Task: structure prediction
Amino acid sequence: MIDLRSDTLTHPTQSMRDAMAYAEVGDDVFGEDPTVKKLESLAAEKTGKETALFVPSGTMGNLISVLSHCGRGDEILLGDRSHISLYEVGGVAALGGVHPRPLRNNNDGTISLDLLEKGIRHADIHSPPTRLICLENTHNFCQGSPLTPEYMTQVGDLANKYGLKIHLDGARIFNAAVALKVPVAELTEKADSIMFCLSKGLSAPVGSLVAGSSTFIDKARKARKMVGGGMRQAGHIAAAGLIALNNLIDRLQEDHDNAKFLASQISKIDGIEVDETRVKTNIIFFKLTGIDGEVFVDTLAKNQIKILMTDPGIFRAVLHREVSKEQVTTVIETFRSILGKA
Ligand code: TLP
Result:
């Protein structure tokens, strides 16, 4: 099976399995798990932050970050195609009483600076106070686009001017760093908090990290406990995360190359619309005309290929460690054959 539905589908490597089995562990709610501590310090070091916190998922990492920056009735500015806005069950509103104000995302994942500035509320009896700007890097539903350090600086300046904080959903921040050839810390410098995932292209089975100042992480640790995310011998899963951060970042380039190859080849097939110039990391979106989307997905499945239809006629393919260049060639040939017959 060639599974292009998500990079979350990657399985742990053999060295992760070995490390998990023999990890040194303790009760992390007591602050006594040495492997979790090691992972948290490595995450802080990589993101250039004071400290970090291991959490079960990206969704929980984003939620507790927002809960730690905002109180009930506060407003956050975020992209209308952001994961927090579209895919996190409205948790910030449901659990935090935080009012999300979605602003239009450009195709490259940015939100225009003037739109952001106009979105900031001024003191007025009718308005919730704006507290936080949430950005996403890479931007999943903007074709996995990486946000540049220059853009982060511009948003950082704006946030400073109005006394706002920035939270970065960096679920795939290492893809961004590899694509832009910059250290992760350059992409996170202007963010007050960042969440990144180990469980996507980096292949760990579970887990994300939130990084920031120690005052912020103290609040986040308490918020994590409140939403049920206090873990005990979590070192078993943190052990896989250490391998992800130490050994699996550089190979992400291979996934980016495969994504570009896939996009460039399928762009030549009649009935597929894809803008290959927008493919910068491991995610591609394409549009199909001339064949019913459900029929396409079913026919692919019969050919041992899984893909996600995100909207009628719109598909997402995500490249990862378990899809080789050879398999990408098989995917291209299968697309060609299905669409040739449509
Ligand atoms: N993204 C998943 C799905 O939820 C869509 C995927 O397959 O891409 N931020 C971003 C940018 C994400 O892409 C995701 C997961 C998360 C947060 C949430 O992470 P988890 O799944 O660990 O809660």
